[in-house]
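Design request, tokens follow.
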């Protein structure tokens, strides 16, 4: 029964209800605030949304078309075939990974058509933002519902946290672990293809809008596009490493991830570019260099730590990782206690957040709106660090305590 299970997010109702209904509202607020360049009050948000929220045939066709194009390309293009982590059933699923190829095909094509030909008015995305957003929210609800219903089939492998029996909570947190249509893995696809690549395309659309209105693209817009494209390219180039993240190995595919992948990432992570489309900023050379340095620093910690762990988990005797100091655990696995992983237990999160801060800073300091991302992301990472700590405590028992005493800081050495 529901009572015997542990509920994340403050119980079966409070957090889940807040997320299911609160986050779509935050998306609308961010849409209005980024256009105005200030924090909007509720009547202003409601007024703007009332005027422009309705999905149209055009926005439904655009979004459905985008999902269909990415899905077809994922199926049609060749890709690396990789095995995922071992499941509770003892089996491993195979995944086809071709996100980087897909990006390399789609992004330059759209860039060329929008900026060098009259055939693609990409700024349309900017002008129909609220309507596209509503379409995406509705799609997220519909897909989550379909996934929940499908998870009730006989013999589906359910996520540990998504089988409480509490209907709303399971719908929210995700019941089925790896929903698939044949060999097409819906969770891996949604996490890396339409939303993540869509984010990079949306950024281009915002630059296109700026070009239409201003007659040029500002250096801040170029920086935001370049930084975030690097982030997307990195995610797709290292697509394989997603197969060992808790999203794929542990969490079910429900509203939280569906909405996160298909709506939150493209519509919130593009906040800076959308802000700059309506509030252009010209940055000095020195300031631009500072922001670039912060992005490089963040990227070094993010990529350095993630790759180090990845290589170590694949082959602890590999030439680039065999020198690392480790703690041997009773489970037979080792934990790295030197180099990146000796500085703080989640130095990769710190690097990720620093990059996010650089994206916000590229928008200058005239408005707090673009900084919403840094605040949101800090909250997500703190929560994720706690969840991962709990998982590791279960996996490694007293060895995890030992590890925490050797590497006492979570994010920033000597601070936190
Ligand atoms: N942009 C965004 O919105 C988001 C980005 N991310 C990014 O995704 C990346 C992956 O994040 P995530 O999967 O959450 O977490 P991590 O990459 O930090 O993986 C955590 C796992 O790594 C292993 N591990 C932890 N410490 C050590 C150690 N010292 N030595 C060896 N292995 C260790 C443990 O698993 P085991 O021991 O079983 O291998 C642990 O469960 C991060 O860089 C994060 O910033 C994440 C969420 C959202
Ligand atoms: C507020 C809300 C609904 C949160 C849901 C969380 C999701 C937005 C994030 C959970 C884990 C994510 C990851 C990425 C994007 C955001 C979500 C989906 C990621 C794909 C971004 C690119 C990175 O390189 C990554 C591949 C490491 C990363 C994986 C986790």
């Amino acid at each position: 029964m529901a009572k015997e299970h542990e509920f994340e997010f403050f119980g079966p109702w409070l957090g889940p209800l807040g997320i299911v209904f609160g986050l779509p509202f935050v998306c609308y607020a961010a849409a209005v605030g980024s256009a105005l360049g200030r924090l909007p009050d509720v009547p202003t948000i409601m007024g703007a949304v009332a005027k422009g929220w309705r999905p149209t045939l055009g926005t439904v066709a655009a979004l459905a078309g985008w999902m269909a194009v990415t899905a077809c390309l994922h199926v049609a293009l060749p890709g690396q075939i990789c095995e995922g982590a071992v499941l509770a059933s003892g089996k491993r699923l195979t995944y086809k990974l071709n996100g980087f190829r897909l990006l390399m095909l789609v992004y330059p094509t759209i860039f060329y058509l929008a900026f060098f030909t009259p055939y693609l008015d990409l700024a349309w995305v900017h002008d129909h933002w609220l309507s596209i957003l509503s379409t995406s929210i509705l799609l997220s609800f519909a897909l989550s519902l379909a996934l929940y219903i499908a998870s009730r089939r006989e013999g589906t492998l359910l996520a540990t946290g998504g089988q409480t029996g509490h209907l709303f909570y399971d719908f929210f947190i995700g019941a089925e672990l790896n929903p698939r249509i044949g060999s097409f893995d819906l969770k891996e696809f949604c996490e890396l293809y339409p939303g993540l690549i869509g984010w990079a395309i949306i950024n281009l659309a915002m630059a296109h809008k700026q070009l239409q209105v201003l007659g040029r693209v500002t250096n801040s817009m170029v920086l935001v596009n370049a930084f975030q494209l690097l982030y997307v390219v990195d995610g797709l180039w290292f697509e394989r490493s997603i197969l060992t993240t808790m999203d794929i190995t542990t969490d079910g595919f429900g509203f939280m991830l569906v909405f996160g992948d298909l709506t939150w990432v493209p519509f919130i992570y593009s906040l800076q570019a959308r802000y700059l489309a309506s509030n252009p900023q010209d940055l000095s050379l020195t300031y631009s260099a500072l922001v670039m340095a912060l992005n490089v620093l963040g990227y070094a910690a993010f990529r350095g730590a993630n790759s180090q762990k990845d290589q170590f988990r694949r082959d602890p005797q590999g030439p680039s990782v065999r020198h690392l100091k480790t703690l041997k655990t009773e489970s037979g696995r080792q934990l790295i206690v030197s180099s990146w992983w000796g500085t703080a237990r989640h130095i990769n999160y710190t690097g990720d957040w620093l990059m996010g801060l650089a994206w916000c800073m590229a928008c200058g300091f005239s408005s707090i709106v673009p900084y919403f991302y840094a605040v949101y992301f800090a909250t997500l990472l703190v929560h994720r660090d706690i969840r991962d700590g709990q998982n590791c405590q279960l996996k490694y028992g007293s060895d995890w305590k030992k590890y925490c005493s050797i590497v006492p800081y979570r994010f920033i050495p000597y601070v936190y």
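Comment from the thread starter after seeing the answer: thanks! Strands lie at 80-86, 92-97, 180-181, 184-185, 326-328, 334-336.
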